[in-house]
Amino acid sequence: PFTFVPMNLWEQLHKFGNVYFLVISVIMYLGETTPLFVGTIKAFSTLGLLLMMMSVTAAMSLFDDIRRKNADEEINSSTS
Q: Fewest 10 Å CB contacts: which of 5, 18, 61, 78?
């Protein structure tokens, strides 16, 4: 129960697209807060979209895990 969030984050951060947008968000945030370069787009727009997509993926994964758990319990409780 308590391992779902860390494991899900671990799995999602192994996807290239998620890491790419996380790095882009950090770079955009640096552009907003430091004088290194001028950032024209706010970082929260990219980071917000990334978090939304990761939460949708996490919710789908959670529902799959719950369905799999219920199916396992049903099989394990049946008599042969």
A: 78
58 exposed, middle or buried (CB, 10 Å; 0-12, 13-18, 19+)? Answer: middle
Please check whether residue 28 is in contact with residue 44, taking contact to mean a CB–CB distance below 8 angstroms.
no
Closest Cα to residue 39, out of 72, 47, 67?
A: 47
What is the tens place of the pLDDT at every residue in 9-43? 999 999 999 999 999 999 888 888 888 887 778 88
> CA triplet 57, 63, 66: central angle to 5 degrees?
140
Name residues whose C-beta falls within 8 Å of residue 57's C-beta, 6 or more positions apart in sequence.
12
Strands of the chain (E only): list them.
none
